[in-house]
Hints:
The chain is an alpha/beta fold and about 325 residues long. It has two domains: about 5-245, Aldolase class I (TIM Barrel, Alpha-Beta Barrel), CATH 3.20.20.70; about 255-320, Non-ribosomal Peptide Synthetase Peptidyl Carrier Protein, Chain A. The chain has 15 helices and eleven strands. The chain has helices at about 25-35, 45-50, 55-60, 80-90, 105-110, 120-135, 155-160, 185-190, 210-220, 235-245, 255-275, 275-285, 285-290, 300-305, 310-320, and strands at about 5, 5-10, 15, 40, 45, 70-75, 95-100, 140-145, 165-170, 200-205, 225. The strands form two sheets. The chain has an eight-stranded parallel β-barrel with strand order 3-4-6-7-8-9-10-11, surrounded by five helices. Strands 1-2 form a two-stranded antiparallel ribbon. The radius of gyration is 20 Å and the shape is globular.
Amino acid sequence: MVKIADISLGNFPLLLAPMEDVSDPPFRFVCKERGADLMYTEFISSEGLIRDAAKSVQKLDIFEYERPIGIQLFGGEIDSMVEAAKIATQANPNLIDINYGCPVKKVVCKGGGAAILQDVPKMVAMTKAIVESTHLPVTVKTRLGWDEKSKNIEEVAERLQDIGIKALSIHGRTRVQLYKGEADWTLIGKVKNNPRIQIPIFGNGDIDSVEKALEYKNRYGVDGLMIGRASIGHPWVFNEIKHFINTGEHLPGPTLEDRVNACYTHLVKSIEWKSEILAINEMKRHYANYFKGIPNFKPYRTALVMSNNLNEIKDLLETIRTTDFTAAGLQLS
């Protein structure tokens, strides 16, 4: 049984990675229904939170059905991160997660995310201050290092464990790599197999098939996997991986009905959480992902993206549900 402090996560948990503009409550709902064991909010700016910025505060929204759920924070100033952790604690998540991995320039240039990989003493000091500021378990997500010459994750893991973090998620790339090239799990495995490391180690990066999930579980010995991009438009990935690990067999892929149902649920939950206009606009970036790989789907995708009318979108989804896409040359009536 894998546990973060007193949070039980099962024998080999699958975590939904925090993804900006993706892992909001509506998306988390469809992933939770389909097997995600632990989820995180989108990352929240510490500066935005302590200044009561509406966008940052809204990201604190969590719901009972999501538990266990972590609130993820990022920032470059220790005092601001401590204050943000105190605010996040009041939202009553199951844990606080610190983002030391985001490679995006606008985050890094302010000292947040992966920027702190260049200053391990500051990372340790910041983490220690956050751990001491909350009664909740504190976890960290980070990368192998800043660049090829400074892959310091083994040192980082030991030092962060020593000052009290309860789990560590490691993305198998450096900051300089961004999301390019192939994730290197070798160092993730070394961290996990270091006899000094007693906290759970979760691996992240390029888990895009059930076969790879099982292979990396066995090869590197991690306590669980964090799934990011592979879940976008395909929340079934969590149950598919679990089934393959347990049985060695593939679950059938989602049917057209499954896809429509997930997409519709995502839309409805978005409307409940935001507003109809905002939800309809933001769902437009998800349609292509939910129906990826379906032949002759382009006219329907275009119609979904062009529509700003909820009843029209519902009708389109119902039409899609009953359409035979194996026939060539389909057009919308």
